Amino acid sequence: MASAKFPNEPEALIAVGPDLELRALDASHAEEIYTAVEANRDHLRQWLPWVDFSHSPADSLKFLQDMEKKRAAAQTLVYGIWPAGGALAGVIGLHDVDLTNGNLQIGYWVAKSQAGRGLVTRACQAMLRLSFETLQMERVEIRCATGNERSCAVPQRLGFQFEGILRHWQKLNGVYVDMRLYSLLSAEYRASA
Predict the structure, then answer these.
(1) Residue range 126-153: average pLDDT?
(2) pLDDT mean over 64-77
(3) What pLDDT sits at residue 3?
(4) In terms of Cα–Cα distance, which of 148, 49, 114 is closest to 122?
(5) What pLDDT score was predicted for residue 138?
(6) Residues in Cβ contact with 114 at an 8 Å cutoff, skipping those fewer than 6 apart
(7) What is the pTM of this model?
(8) Helix ranges, 26-118 (H)
(9) How far apart are CA 13 and CA 25, in angstroms?
């Protein structure tokens, strides 16, 4: 049985204007990822359950090695967000890639000091180009915890349609939380481009 492959090879480096770039993450970024998570632990754990399981650079390395395997199987793509001349500001990825049905999810996080600067919105725009133009997807989803207003503002800003609430979809800090489900279809993306 042949392994799945992306229809076109995704870029390893995506320039998002002269002041921002997305770099495909691999095992060599473990220390940078861990440093960013550690510096933003309280900020991130409010909305991301995996933060409490990241205790060392070895945990970041394990995550990145898993992402490399999933990339090789055409299941995920993960990029670091780097402002020009700066340190890693966050991570964005395409997850649960389903090549058969043409859909995937975008997930993201950003350091507290970088929030509110438009980096995530711009990085998502680049991920939409990658999803619809390079990977030829039909549908892209973003899911955000109902109380995470900043995260929910990103798909709203990008023209995603709100589809509804996924009740008790995620366990966060010991409590089940609802998620808002947003989607964008290929035709909607092309009409707004």
Answers:
(1) 96
(2) 94
(3) 65
(4) 114
(5) 98
(6) 81, 83, 89, 90
(7) 0.93
(8) 30-39, 41-45, 57-72
(9) 10
